[in-house]
Prior knowledge:
Blueprint: H1 2-12, E1 18-22, H2 28-36, E2 41-44, H3 47-56, E3 62-65, H4 74-77, E4 83-87, H5 90-102, E5 107-113, H6 126-134, H7 136-140, E6 144-151, H8 159-180, E7 189-191, H9 198-203, E8 208-211, H10 213-216
Parallel strand pairs: 1-2, 1-8, 2-3, 3-4, 4-5, 5-6, 6-7
The structure holds pyridoxal-5'-phosphate.
Amino acid sequence: MIKKRLDTIRESIPAHVELIAVSKTKPNADIMEAYDAGQRHFGENKVQEMVDKHEALPKDIKWHLIGHLQTNKVKYIASFVHLIHAVDSLKLLKEINKQALKHDRVIPCLLQFYIAEEETKFGLDLKEAIELLESDEFKRLQNIQIDGVMGMATFSDDNEQIRTEFKNLKNIFNRLEADYFKSRPNFNIISMGMSSDYKIAIEEGSTMIRVGGTIFGQRG
Length: 220
Ligand SMILES: *Cc1c(COP(=O)(O)O)cnc(C)c1O
């Protein structure tokens, strides 16, 4: 079942779009079914769950932390996390840098932007991102790397609204790329799109989709 659903999604998305299988709340057996079907990128939104799964499962899995990350929990994932999607403060970036340094590595991160209409606590706006990127403290960080942007559209049936929000994130990406990352080819990820809206996201320039329910079944 999982393999079939994965194949269906893979056949429908362009080759340049990376599929992250969002396995939060799902058992290791489900992850192994996806793994055996060739899936290597998995997304989790809770640190403890990701640590437990990392310990139990094959070490060539690339773990994406897609949910909000608390500063005091960075240390638990710093040795192995593949990409941190939801960076929304300089304080968090500084802690990621500090923990990455301990493990003698560079941790790739995405800046999360607040693009939805609904009230949420998380995500930067463009002005805040510019402040962050222009700060001397940011420029001194040697063990983090900003690889792109991430955002979530409003949970809505209104496809035009969702499309507008994704266009907005793409514009933010373009602007940051032109102003801050011109000579940095690693700044190339636009993480947007989930089960309900990944098709629209891809039409609007997504390069990385985070899909849970459509692969593993709805979460209970
Ligand atoms: C849960 C989650 C997803 C996947 O959602 P589905 O609707 O199950 O595809 C994607 N991104 C984030 C940040 C999530 O928390």
